[in-house]
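Run log // design_07
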């Protein structure tokens, strides 16, 4: 039996994988993501409309309204962003 393998096949990231990737974009090491850092992360992940998506994600996940996604808010960010079906290639 022969298997067909598609080079363009991809699988969705798990929430754990997505969180790990997003944490890498904390460029200044303060333990929080700024909207700019998140926008850059989304852009590098290949998401379209990354600025708009970063704004929406912040609106949803920045519970204390300080303009950053902290460690406690990261779970909400990941849950929200994982609905977009971010995939590995």
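design_07 sequence
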């Amino acid at each position: 039996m022969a298997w067909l393998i598609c080079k363009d096949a991809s699988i969705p990231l798990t929430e754990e994988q997505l969180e790990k990737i997003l944490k890498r974009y904390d460029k200044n090491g303060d333990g929080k993501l700024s909207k700019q850092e998140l926008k850059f992360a989304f852009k590098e992940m290949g998401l379209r409309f990354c600025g708009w998506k970063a704004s929406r994600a912040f609106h949803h996940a920045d519970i204390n309204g300080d303009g950053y996604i902290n460690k406690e808010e990261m779970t909400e960010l990941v849950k929200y962003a994982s609905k977009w079906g971010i995939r590995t290639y």
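Residues 1-7 have pLDDT under 50 and may be disordered.
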